[in-house]
Design brief:
Distance between the termini: 41 Å
Order of helices and strands: HEHHEEEHEEEEHHEHEHEHEEEHEE
Number of helices: 10
Largest sheet: 6 strands, mixed
Helix content: 25-40%
Length: about 375
Amino acid sequence: MEHALSHATLTELRRPRPYPAVSVLTPTHRREPDNAQDPVRLRNLVAEAKKQLESDPAVPRERRLDVTRQLDAALAEVDLAHSEDGLVIFAAPGEHQVWSLARTVPERVVLSDTFLTRNLVSAQAAERPFWVLSVSAERVTLWNGGVDRVTEHDTDGFPLLRERQNFDAERQERIGDLPSTFRDEDTRHFLREADLALGAVLRHSPRPTYVTGETAALSALDEFGGVTRHAVHVPHGGLAHASHEAVWQAVGPMVATEARRNTDAVARELESARGRKAYAAGVDELWRTAREGRVRMLAVEENYRVTVRDDGGNHLVPALSGDLDAREDIVDEIVEQCLETGADIRFVPDGMLGEVGGIAGVLRY
């Protein structure tokens, strides 16, 4: 199952497909007893997708059989034992993907000529993604970070490996890299390569970045003046070879501190916007201003959800889940629209925006 959504991957997911491109969305659960319902719910939704394929006169028989096979293959790849809060299956002629999300999604089956990506986009933003670069003299590992975990990023040339002469791995385990190691020209060249490789990643996927390593390694990176110089340095060696649990244990406290600073900064920015009359709040007002491209910064409570419908004019009104014209993922629609127009998306703790309905924004004009 997929977890990390890069800009290149999103662009590929959004390109038009031969009809039908099928999107199946379902909420999932991490713990008992709620997760007992997940397999049944998923099978029922896949069955509903097949039923819609069968009854759609615009789908030729050969294409219907192809997409049905893709749905079955995707279903076989689902690992509900390690599920998060939402699951998305994409299936089209000749391809399928399964995405696990750390954000809930509404039950939905959609047949179109593109995949439904708004929930992926919103989930990615809510995860507050970051990078962790772990350096040593012979290996550099890049980690993809989210709210409560890191996973190794094994593309874009990572991990970087270097053969070292007269290298004693057992000795490193006992005492760590000697500072003199990072004054060696070959080692410094290797670290420059790592800095350039990270720079290439940040160009297509910019995120906050942490760099871990021995103090001498971090000092050497500082001297180069590259992208790692602007990252948060974590003086902790041995993580280039470590497990994802060890890396998270090292950077987790700093990530939590940054999250608190982010929340405080959002509160100050919203308060300032009120004074300048550049402020919007509530799902109805944000829906309209987002479509106009006026939102510069959007703040959303982490678990804020609301179901609405269009009143036929230019406003949203409350609706019940399951109503024929209900829009159950309007918050994700707003998040995606704001991202499309270059807005900064900030997810904040539940309750912070309670007085204004769980969502607020700073306007450009």
